Structures are given as C-alpha cells and as structure tokens.
Amino acid sequence: MSKLLSYLGIFICFVFISCGESKTPPNEQQSKDGTATTGSIDQSEVHVEEYKVIPVEEIDKINQTITEKHLTNNDEIMRLYKPEEAAPGKGYTYVIKEINSQDSTSTLVSLNIDNNNHESIKSIKVIMSIQTKDGKPVVTQIKESYKCWEGKGHQEWSAFPCA
After folding, report:
1. Which residues have C-beta within 8 Å of that of residue 6, sequence separation ≥ 6?
2. Confidence class of residue 107 from pLDDT cuts 50, 70 and 90?
3. Of 26, 57, 111, 146, which one's alpha carbon is 20 to 30 angstroms from that of 81?
4. φ, ψ for residue 151, nearest 5 deg
C-alpha cells in the first residue's frame, strides 16, 4: 500500500511539473533578414524554463564599450558580450538570431551555443534585449540559461551553474 501511495505521489508531482506556465516574451514577432548567422527565433527556442539575469553593472560596462567602439550591429554587440570560441571543438555551433518588437525601438537577440568547449557547460542560451535610444543601441537586459554535459549537472535548460 505504501508503494502505491509513493508511486501516486510521484505521478502527481510529474503532472504538476509538466503543466508549467509558458514564459515566452510578450513582444515576440517575425524576424528580420540579416547575415548568414541571423534568422528567425522559433517559439521553442525562446521558451527557456529558467534564466540567470545578468547584473546591471555588467550591462552598464557593455553599454560603455558599445559607445566607445561605436557598435551599431546587433551581431557585433552579442559577440562583444559572448565571443565565439577561438578553437571550437567537434560539433560546436554558435548561432545568433534576432527578432523585432512591435514598436521597432527594441530587439530581442538570441544566441545559442552548443557543444561548448567548457568542461561542464555543454550549451548556453543568451537572450539580450537591445533598445534604440537617441539613434544608438542600448542593452537593457541579458538573460542566460545553461545545459550541462552528462555527469556534470542538469541536462535541461536552467539558470543553475554546472558542476
């Protein structure tokens, strides 16, 4: 009888976890054409269970560098924040995609890195919000999520660090 109750409890927990609320950004729309590394963001690519929000102090440093280097291209801004590996391993991918908001003054830029060279982090997903203020790009928010290599932590997207 106690085994039956245990299985029932696990089943109920699974059902509640599986029925989670979607956290898709409300300003998602069609993508704009761009370079070879730019494309549209699929709904499944934007939906990430948990994000680590990057501190404002780090975003302020990025914005200062954007101003100093006169950067205007969203790909360049994302590469400034999270550069591509210099010596990538087998199967490494680095894909930047962007999407316009309804008011055309802000853009969501997504970066997906898979088969990362890091010993514990397999994949990284970055969502960066860039607004245009006085004709210049300004990063307003950055969120990250991680997948770990097998044996190094979680294999699902999470804000928690890998071991």
Report:
1. none
2. very high
3. 26
4. 85, -5
Q: ∠ CA(29), CA(124), CA(46), 5° rounding?
A: 20
DSSP state string for 16-27: HHHTPPP---TT
Write down the residue that tokens 């404002």 correspond to: 56
Q: Are 128 and 145 in contact (CB under 8 A)?
A: no
Please state, in angstroms and as integers, the Cα–Cα distance from residue 154 to each residue in 76, 93, 94, 141, 161, following that order. 30, 20, 21, 25, 9
What is the DSSP secondary structure assignment for residue 130, as one 8-state letter?
A: E
Residue whose pair of structure tokens reads 């499944």 in the numeric block: 44
Q: How far is CA 141 from CA 71, 100, 131, 134, in A?
A: 17, 15, 10, 18
The tokens for 60 are 């302020």
Q: What are phi and psi of 113, to 5 degrees?
A: -115, 125
146: tokens are 């991680």
Query: pTM for this one?
Result: 0.68
